[in-house]
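mind reviewing this stuff:

——
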Amino acid sequence: MSFIADKQTLEDMNLLGRYNQHSIFNLFNKVKTAGGEKLLQEMFQTPLTDPELINKRSETFQYFQSRHTAFPFSNEQFDAMGNYLSGTSGKFFPRILLSLAYKKLLATIVRDEEYPKIQSGLRQTIAVLYQCKTFISQLEEEQQQHPFYDELQTVKNILNQPKLQWLEKVQIGGAPYSIQITARYDHLLRYTLRSALQTVMNIFYMLDVYLAVANLAKDKSFSYAKALPNAANIFSATGLRHPNINKAVANPVSFHKDSNLIFLTGANMAGKSTFMKAFGINLYLAHMGFPVAASDMEFSVKQGIYTSINVPDNLDMGLSHFYAEVLRVKKVAEEVSNGKNLVIIFDELFKGTNVKDAYDATLAVTAAFSEYRNCLFIVSTHIIEAGEILKQQSNIQSLYLPTIMNGSVPTYTYQLQQGISADRHGMMIIENEGILELLEN
């Protein structure tokens, strides 16, 4: 079963985007190879829903983080090998030999580049395979099983088979190989062992991702979440923070089935949206088995996450901002009422309508959603009056982000506190900016 996160959710949390400098993907994209980057993109697009698979991937990252190992290859080396192996060779050795002889003749007479390219690709592929063999021997630990053991053994078995014993003796530099040697190696690598060598490359792309992410986790002081079966419906984290903000303020967050909704209040700029994004991003990363920006975390796996943070209007369809909000809430309600185990984040419910309607709708919708104890919710709002009624429900946590006034200047702690915000500093901020005085003058 695939993890659900639609386009708006991914955009709200700025998760994807190779060319988006501030995306969470780019935070982790420290890989060395194009194949590693492609694999990293696939991991970001397909979070896991099996706690055993999530925990195994986390354990693999932790294993490589403990080794302090750097990926020993460049993208150019693997590109050269990939380009060489993607070319055609042939099934029959005599034909390969004749073909190479013809290509070499063309290279001599008309300076055709194909034969030198084959020689270069062959040499670079042999060099990479030799380095792979050396690198794996350095990673081996006697009689110790580790999370990446099976993959390394697969590569080791491929490279240690009798057909490749010549790798130990072959001259990597020096004069070009003879046509006979070139034909023999070319037939072996690009025909006989082509599939096996692609497996070697894929495992090293995987290794590239594991080493890059593990080293980032060490640099950023990230930790690893423990995945639990969904039945427990638990989320608990300390020191949770936004992974893409340096020196971000950390907060504890806790849910369980009898306390499954956070009703969040606070002034503008107090940090509500950032906190909700931090929660959503880390939950998403945890389902990938990736390191998280928290001191510690454990969570019951979910089927997906929906956010409603930056709901756009749609002028082409004639949708106002409010109606777009309503349709978004309806979509989430359909998913929740169908029994799916989800995490839902609503930022400023129904801000596109008048205060009275917003109050009534926030109160009714929040109370109705909270009854789905298999799901977890965070709902933020400025309608603090709704919070006074909702806090009477035992499964709703009332939390707020405070504003501290230094005279007429607001400052923010970004630290969660129990209760409902009483901050009403909007007019004070407007007065501080001198807007009314400017208009009067």
Q: What stands out?
A: The CA atoms of residues 72 and 135 lie 8 Å apart. The longest helix spans residues 194-220. Residues 222-440 form a domain with the Rossmann fold fold (CATH 3.40.50.300).
